[in-house]
Write a structure and sequence with these properties.
This protein has seven helices and no strands. It is mostly helical and 205 residues long. Helix 1 crosses helix 3.
């Protein structure tokens, strides 16, 4: 039930993010919905396929309905959302942290080792954004912006450390959530990013 609630909250948060990006490119309603779905279920779908289980959104229509509600929210309240860019950045960050935890907990529940669970958490949190950026013809955020996927990894490591110390699942999830969010907030606030690779430009013919 905890995983279910987390995934629903994360779905709405990420769907809002994807639909707002589509709106900035002047997509129609269907295009916006597709982008919202891509962000909301993309990472979890990759996770479930790799774990050999039925993708979570195929077991109930609630995730697709949740994305529909997010679309209507943007359509009817979009003009009030524009001044709230910082608030929606917070929404995106909360979705990132929630999905990371959902990925970790589901992987552990299926008997995967912790290092796999951390990777699955990272994929759950960030892969949907990659799909969104590909659909929007943008360079994926995780490759060139402030720390994003790394925040998922560090949040997962915090979860693992607390679980190894024998702390409860609930406390481990709360701390992991806070670590992921704080790292993401600090990275954006102070423009923290990983060093870039240096190399000669390759001309493609």
């Amino acid at each position: 039930m905890i995983i279910y609630i987390i995934e629903l909250l994360g779905t709405f948060a990420f769907a809002i993010s994807g639909i707002r990006h589509a709106a900035a490119k002047h997509f129609d309603w269907f295009g916006g919905y597709v982008c919202g779905v891509a962000v909301a279920i993309g990472g979890g779908t990759f996770r479930d396929v790799m774990l050999g289980t039925t993708p979570f959104w195929m077991t109930t229509p609630l995730y697709l309905i949740c994305t529909g509600v997010a679309l209507l929210t943007v359509v009817f309240f979009g003009k009030w959302m524009e001044p709230l860019k910082n608030a929606w950045f917070v929404f995106d960050t909360l979705g990132l942290a929630l999905f990371t935890i959902a990925g970790i907990q589901k992987s552990l529940a299926m008997g995967q080792p912790f290092w796999v669970a951390i990777i699955m958490g990272c994929i759950t949190g960030s892969a949907g954004g990659v799909i969104r950026d590909v659909l929007l013809n943008n360079e994926p955020v995780i490759f060139h912006k402030e720390i994003y996927a790394i925040a998922c990894v560090l949040g997962g490591l915090a979860y693992w450390a607390l679980a190894a110390l024998g702390l409860s699942t609930e406390l481990s999830a709360v701390v992991s959530f806070c670590v992921t969010c704080i790292i993401r907030f600090l990275a954006v606030r102070y423009h923290i990013s990983l060093p870039t690779l240096k190399g000669e430009e390759i001309n493609r013919k």
